[in-house]
Amino acid sequence: MECYNCGIIIGREKVCPNCGVDLRKYRQFVGISNYLYNQALAQAKERDLSGAASSLRLSLQYNKVNTNARNLLGLIYYEMGEGVAAVREWLISKGYQAQENRASEYLEETKKNPAEKERINQLARKYNQVVHYCNQDSLDLAVIQLKKILADNPKLIKGWQLLALIQMHEGNPEAARKSLRKAEAIDNGSPLTARYMKEAVTMMNENGGRKKKKSQAVAYQNGNDTIIQPKFRGDIGFWGMAANLLVGVAIGVAITWYLVVPGIRKTAVSEAAVAVAEANNTIADKNQMIKSLEEQIGALSGDVENMETLSKEQGDVAKANEQLLLAYDAYNNEDISLAGDTLEGVDASLLSRKSKAIMEQLREKINQQYVTQAYEAGMAAYNSNDNEKAIEQLNKVVAMDETYDEGNALYNLAQAYRKAQEWDAAVLYYSKVVELFPGNSLAYNANRYLSQINRMPEMQ
Description:
The model is unreliable at 209-221 (pLDDT under 50). Strands 1-2 form a two-stranded antiparallel ribbon. Helix content is 75%, strand content 3%. The protein is mostly helical. It has helices spanning 24-45, 49-62, 67-79, 83-96, 102-112, 114-135, 139-152, 157-169, 173-186, 191-208, 237-332, 336-344, 353-383, 387-400, 408-419, 423-436, 441-454; strands spanning 217-222, 225-230. α1 runs parallel beside α3 (67-79).
């Protein structure tokens, strides 16, 4: 047993050892709830489903987390043909106890059989339509729809009760009694069924006590004997027979026109209305199905987009790791220039922590040799007047260390840009030489070249 306040498992304590609340009243409520649950079990075995449902509802008033009582109430609702109410009780029960709860099995069964779930929803909608017909006083439509419902779900007790009520309203207590007997076969303890049955029997007795029609026979005495014979009239002749025949034909036509034809029309209209209602229900179901499929398509589209994004990210990660491996392989083959160039193209943000550590170690090993080789290649190109290659190699050196070789790398890069007549870049790097090495001979020469460039007409 759990404390209702803090939820810890307790024994026979009268006061919770954890939070200190008084448990005596709570134990009484739990005991009453369990007693009513056991009483409902006995009532259910006797097919007194209404009594069992009443006991279980009272049990849940004393202890709303009594999942055994709530699960049994759901089973009783299901047996009475009220599938929606049954599912509601099982969902509430699962909310109170998610683990080791029979409600999960019952709900899983309904999920395994989508047709059964759809049938329950259809019957609920159709029954609501019947109630709507009754409120509109369209009892013929209600009866037609109700009979179809009961054909699909013969355990719907409230359906039989409603059908009996309509039949009594239309003056047919015998049919109402038959409907109520079917309800009693499912639930023999329903007070509503018993009340309707009593009313149906009363109506039948009243109809049986009406005065009989006057006898169509006459009696007379012949001595000591009583003679009984039918009344008859004398011979009415040919013209009388003809007149009677014409009158009979006229009456037959009138009956057909005023009684039979309207009935046929009314039946046709009723059947058409039921067909329209069923068509509307079918359209609503189809629309719901289409909406559900559209939602599924939207979800799948989102999954596809997520998978495409994930695939692209994984491709980028694979490419970064591949470049790291190529840089490491070039370093092992002592191709420092290739190793450095490849390593510069690696996006470190895509690497794992371990791969980043490897990259940093490799960078430390490569950098010094890479800078040295790039500087030597850049100076060789500069001395050979290959300004384009000199700019390429010296940019690598400056990008990693602007002060390399006491500023000579930076100064020679500015010189290469000046010789290539790329004045803006030359001004930029001459200015950096002046900034980083003031008072140096390199800064003096840089200032001199800056003055020459600034005096050029194209720089005015």
